[in-house]
Amino acid sequence: MSVQITCKDAALGYENRIVAEHLNFTVSSGDYLCILGENGSGKSTLMKALLGLKPQVSGEIICAHQGIGYLPQQTVVQRDFPASVQEIVRSGCLGKSGLRPFYTKEEKALAAQMMQQLGITELAKRCYRDLSGGQQQRVLLARALCAAKNMLLLDEPVTGLDPRAQNELYEQIAALNRSGITIIMVSHDVAAALQYASHILQIGSKQQLFYGTADEYKNSRIGKAFLESGGAEIE
Question: What's the mean pLDDT when you consider all of the chain?
């Protein structure tokens, strides 16, 4: 498996404040990495660094993979966006189109393929704001896949969904991973991370840092502390 991301002793911060440091991990093609940590531990800052939107304070972050599909947390305004599902999914191709004011035949076919893969073809003409939360997230996943077919960064993708919709989305993401897509997900849901992820990265203070396989996490001091706590989510 080829290495797509390498992080070497990286420190992250903003507004002259370090929020995470001593980060060392790699992501190989086909991995499913779940990033855990308390609020304010630097998870979102790390996502921005991986996307090239925010430079690290020190250390190295090397992304050999060009182009990453990104699914950020939705705002209330975004959930009410008055566009069709097809329009939103196709918009994932905009980064490749430059100044072209239209989509190519290939881009339209890619969008149709991604909608079919995520089971939302029948929603193509529906207005996005009329969909359920789970349906909206699948639409945004399809859009992200149009941007980059081989790697997805997901920031708390199940936030605000009911338990059934959460489980369905987790299963859909796992299916994408089994098809060969690399997944990097920020989450508070440690139970789901242990169920689905191949690797766990926990960030925070030096005493809370962990990187390894899900099985190694279960047997680590940090992982055991969570399991002994009765399975509560990290808040």
Answer: 87
For residue 111, give its domain range: 71-147
**What pLDDT is attached to residue 64?**
78
Question: Model confidence at 85, in pLDDT bands (50, 70, 90)?
Answer: very high
Tokens (6 digits) for 215:
């099985």
| Range 133-144 average pLDDT | 93
CATH number for the domain harbouring residue 33? 3.40.50.300
* Structure token pair of residue 147: 């941007």
Q: Say what the pLDDT of residue 234 is.
A: 40
Domain end, chosen from 104, 130, 147, is at 147
The rounded distance, in Å, linking the Cα atoms of 96 and 100 is: 9
- The torsion angle over the Cα atoms of residues 194, 199, 203 and 206, rounded to 10 degrees, is 110
Name the pLDDT band for 227 (thresholds 50, 70, 90): low
Q: Tokens 């991990």 appear where?
A: 25
Q: Token match 């699948």: residue?
A: 138
The candidate with the shortest Cα–Cα distance to 71, out of 160, 120, 140, is 140
